[in-house]
Amino acid sequence: MLKYFGILLIFSGCSFAGFLLALKKKKDICYIEAMIEFIKYIKFKVIYFRSELCEIYDGFDNKFLGNCGYLQRLRKEGMEKVTKEYSGRFFVREHEYEALISFAMSIGKSAWENQVEMCDKLIILLEKYYTELNEKYPNEKKLLSSLGIIAGLLFAVILL
Amino acid sequence: MDNILISVLGRLDVRIKNSVTQALSQINKKVNEIRIRENSRVYLTVDNENIPCDLTVDRDMLQKSFEALCSGTLHTHMETIKNGYLVFGDGVRVGVSGHALTEEGKITNVYDITSINIRIPYPIYGICDKIYSRIKSNDYFLNTLIYSLPGGGKTTMIRDLAFTLANQGNKRVAIIDTRCEIADSKLRACGNIDIYSAYPKARAMEYAIRTMNPQYLICDEIGALDEAQSLLSVQSAGVPIIATAHAKNIVELMRRKNISLLHENGVFDIYVGIRRNAEGKTTFLFCNSQEI
Q1: Does A108 touch chain B (CB under 8 A)?
Q2: Does any CB of chain B come closer than 8 Å to the CB of residue A112?
Q3: Which residues of chain A have a CB within 8 Å of the CB of B74?
Q4: Which CATH superfamily is domain B129-291 in?
Q5: Confidence of residue A90 (pLDDT cuts 50, 70, 90)
Q6: What integer pLDDT is reported at residue B55 of this predicted model?
Q7: A50, closest residue in chain B (CA to CA)
Q8: ipTM of this predicted complex?
Q9: At a CB cut-off of 8 Å and minimum separation 6, what does B209 contact?
Q10: How many CA atoms lie within 13 A of B267 on its CB side?
Q11: CATH number of B3-119
């Protein structure tokens, strides 16, 4: 009896792991989406108000970035440090990661026209990346969920 | 130590802050300016004397201090930096010099900052009592031009005059605060005051007269031709003016072409000179326009 219960547990665990991996992929996409919104907000505040960084950080709100703690830490630690950590925590492809970090390091350090140009370039890059990820996600979700179930079944068969 | 000075020191590189704090504890007087230059000692201006501190500033210290004074946001301050200054906190003006990029005679960018001069304001309210009775005529203030050398107390005086007019006199006051030095938090909170921050003076005067209907117009450091012409328009609108200008004495003041143009057109009724002696004592010199 216990054996069958253990097998069921392993099967459920593997299926759930597949599901969690798929959810993590979704969170990676949500992070990119949230960062695009943030960069657009920065651009808006720079063009129309020439706002200081602390004012920009205080004024921005995003559910995803708020829930994961990015915004709270942003206001205390600055964009460079927090973006480095979170862009590592959520998987961001190397090219886009370098672009994000480079932007975070240079924000506030040049005239408004340069800032806006940097925002525009980063938005284009991240939107392209976001579109790619969104197109791949449905297949990846199916694959990861299926792999989880298959792995669970495999273990179940081996143990039986 | 004054709150404004504390907030300024809090923005400086910690080594500069410590050096200045140590020097101030030995001087025991109010510091007017803190000068920070690359590869030079920090200097304090106290009663027009230059007092060196025991620290030589390197590029890193200067850059850190400059970035902190800009609140880490250069794009907010770039326009004023191109005009040679930035404004921090409650009316603290920071003079900035470095390397300018120009295009067709206009400064498009400033980089490689090598000197900053932090001017510490000491708002004094109640100081206008010393000249109040001389520039008041029945229910109104006369059109007044206050002059002195730089650091003489002109801005302090007109700040207090604005506060007195708006707060006690219940008058509508428009302040042309091009360099954001006049209005502090107390003045902003008092009501009855319209402040034109960072506007070009001539245009701000025009807008104020056209749209704000002030009972008094206050303007700091007039001297350019377009400002003089705008003041002539203000005069024709019948709005009393209180303004300031740089000059050592009345003779030097009248030698300035645009000031003498205003005098010839009878814009100002009275000229008030502020003079400070070596001991820091302030005297006021009054001269009616008919006497010149």
Answers
A1: yes
A2: yes
A3: 108-111
A4: P-loop containing nucleotide triphosphate hydrolases (3.40.50.300)
A5: confident
A6: 92
A7: B76
A8: 0.76
A9: B217, B233, B234, B237, B239
A10: 25
A11: 3.30.450.90
Give domain limits for chain B. 3-119, 129-291
- pLDDT tens for B46-98 read 888 899 999 999 999 999 999 999 998 999 999 999 999 998 877 788 999 99
Structure tokens, B9: 């020191």
pLDDT, tens digit (0-9, with 9 covering 90-100), for B200-256: 888 999 999 999 999 999 998 888 888 888 888 888 888 999 999 999 999 999 999
Q: What distance in Å separates the CA atoms of residue B13 and residue B57, rounded to the nearest whole number?
A: 10
Please compute Rg for chain B using Cα positions: 20
In this complex, which of B71, B74, B79 lies closest to A54 when CB atoms are compared? B71
Q: How many CB pairs under 8 A join A and B?
A: 35
**B121 sits in which H/E element:** none
Q: Which residues of A touch B75 (CB under 8 A)?
A: 46, 50, 108, 110-112, 114-115
Across the interface, which of A54, A78, A110 has its CB nearest the CB of B74?
A: A110
Which chain A residue lies closest to B82 (C-alpha atoms)? Answer: A111
State the DSSP code for B13: -
Tokens of B29: 């007087």
In this complex, the residue of A53, A114, A115 whose CB is nearest that of residue B71 is A53
**Rounded distance, CA B211 to CA B172, Å?**
12
Q: Are B258 and B223 in contact (CB under 8 A)?
A: yes
Pairing type for strands B136-137 and B144-148 reads unpaired
* Neighbour tally for B26: CB within 10 Å: 8
